[in-house]
Amino acid sequence: MKADENFEIDAESVGFGTFSDVYMARDKQKDLTVALKRVKQTNNKDLNNIIYYGACREVAILKTVTHENIVAFKGVCPNSRNRRQFYTVLEYCDYDLLFVRLNLTLSTPEVKCLMRQLLEGLRYLHDKKIIHRDIKPGNILINKDGVLKVADFGHARECKEETNSFSNMVVTLCYRAPEMLLGERNYGPAIDVWSAACVMAEIITGNVLFHGHDENSQIAAILDTCGPISKDVWPGVELLPLFKEKVSVLSSDGKRRLKEKLMPPLNDDFAFNLLDAILAYDPRKRLSSRDALSHEFFAAEPKAEVDLRGVITRLNQLEQQTESSQESDKLDIAHNKENRRKRRRRRRKRRTNPYSLDHQN
Ligand SMILES: Nc1ncnc2c1ncn2[C@@H]1O[C@H](COP(=O)(O)OP(=O)(O)OP(=O)(O)O)[C@@H](O)[C@H]1O
Ligand SMILES: [Mg+2]
After folding, report:
1. Which of 68, 91, 114 is the endpoint of a domain?
2. Are residues 85 and 99 in the same domain?
3. Residue of 42 and 11 predicted with greater confidence
4. Beta-carbon contacts of residue 39 (< 8 Å; ≥ 6 apart)
C-alpha cells in the first residue's frame, strides 16, 4: 500500500502534534475518509530515532486494541519519498476536545456523556494492562456522530509486571499525576485517571485545572487546590525519590480548596464528589476507571443519555461566528489599507501637483 497511490491527501494538515502532523485523506479504493498520521523529521538524528520508535510503539499498541472509544487503527503505509517515515492510517475524527477551551457551555448530561465515554475507553485499556500516559484534551477526539475516541498512543505502555521502572517524564505536565511529579517510576493506570479528572474539570470550567510551567510550579498548583501532601493522606509518600528535594515546595499549610476552585461553574455535587475521589493524592485511594464508572454521578438524574451531535452543532455555529467576525476584521484591515493607499496617493499628488484640489483644501 503506497500513500500516493492509495490516498488522496488533503495537503492542509488537520492536526499538528509535537511529533506528528495529521492529514485528512480519501482512501481511493474504499471511498472512505481517513486520517493519516506522519511523524515529523527534525535535524537531530537521535531525536528522529526516538520519534520513529514512538510511532512504531503506537502502531504496536493500536494493533492490539479494538473499542468504540478508542481511535480505530486501519494500517500503515510507507512514505515513498522517505524510507524512515510512514503513515499510520486511522479512522478520521472531526474534532478534538480542545474545543472545551472555547466559550462553549456544556450541560451536565453532555459532561456525563463525554466522561462516561472517556472512562469506558480507559477501563478497556486498563483491563488490558495498557497505560495511555498522555490523556489530555488534544488526544481525545470526537467523530461526526458524537462518539468520543481516545487517540495518540505514542507514549502508551503495557504494565503487565508487578513492579515497573517507567519514565516519570511522560504525560503532558498539566495532566501529570502527583506520584510521577515526585519521581515515582513504578506507577500504574491510576495516572491516567488523574489526567481524566483534570480533563473533566476543564470540560466544566473551560480552564486548565492545574497550570504549572515546570515541575515545581506544577506541584505548587496542585497543592494550592488539593491541599498539603502528608503521610496522613498519603502513607509512604516520604519514600518517593523527589519528596525530600521538593519538600520546601511541598510545605503548604493550605486547605483542600477544590470546591472553591470549581464552583461555579460546577454546580453538581455528584460531579464534585467524583472529581474529589479521583483527585486523591495516594494512587491506591484514587478511584479506578472501573470504579469511576459506577460512581453515583453517572447513576443520578439527569442521565448521560444525550446526543453529542448537539455540541458539534453549537461548536460549528461558534466557529462560523468567529470566522465571520475575523472576516469582518480582515475587511476592516483591507479597508484601512485601501484608505492608507489613497492617502499616500493624495500626498504624492500634492507634492507633484501643487495646484490640485487636494492641495487647495
Ligand atoms: N484520527 C484523527 N482524526 C482527525 N484528527 C486527528 C486524528 N488523530 C489526531 N488528530 C489531530 O492531530 C493532532 C495531533 O495528533 P497526535 O496527538 O496523535 O500527535 P502527536 O504528535 O503524538 O501529539 P502530541 O503533541 O500530543 O505529542 C491531534 O491533537 C488532533 O487534533
Ligand atoms: Mg497528541
Report:
1. 91
2. no
3. 42
4. 19, 20, 51, 52, 54, 55, 85
Report whether 149 belongs to an annotated binding site. Answer: no
18 lines ligand 1 (CB under 6 A): yes
- Please indicate, yes or no, if residue 314 is contained in any of the structural domains: no
Query: Which ligand sits nearest to residue 39's alpha carbon?
Result: 1
For 288-341, how does the pLDDT look when each residue is reduced to its tens digit (9 = 90+)?
Answer: 999 999 999 999 999 888 999 999 999 888 888 887 776 665 555 454 445 444
Beta strands in the chain (DSSP E): 7-16, 20-27, 32-39, 73-79, 82-91, 95-96, 130-131, 140-142, 148-150, 157-158
Question: CATH no. for residue 262?
Answer: 1.10.510.10
Report residue 240 as a C-alpha cell.
518517593
DSSP 19-47: SEEEEEEEETTTTEEEEEEEE---S-HHH
Whether 185 contacts 168, CB under 8 Å = yes
pLDDT of amino acid 200 = 97
- Mutation probe of ligand 1 site: the residue of 13, 20, 58, 85 with most atoms within 8 A of C-beta: 20
Catalytic machinery residues = 134
What distance in Å separates the CA atoms of residue 289 and residue 277, rounded to the nearest whole number?
11
Q: What is the pTM of this model?
A: 0.88
The CA 95 to ligand 1 mean position distance, Å, reads: 10
In angstroms, the Cα distances linking 243 to 76, 179, 204, 285 are 43, 10, 32, 19
Phi-psi region for residue 133, left (φ > 0), alpha (ψ -120 to 50) or beta?
left
Q: CB of 71 closer than 6 A to ligand 1?
A: yes
Domain residues for 78?
Answer: 3-91
30 and 120 fall within a common domain: no
* Res 284 pLDDT > 80: yes
Ligand of minimum distance to the alpha carbon of 15: 1
> Does residue 115 share a domain with residue 76?
no
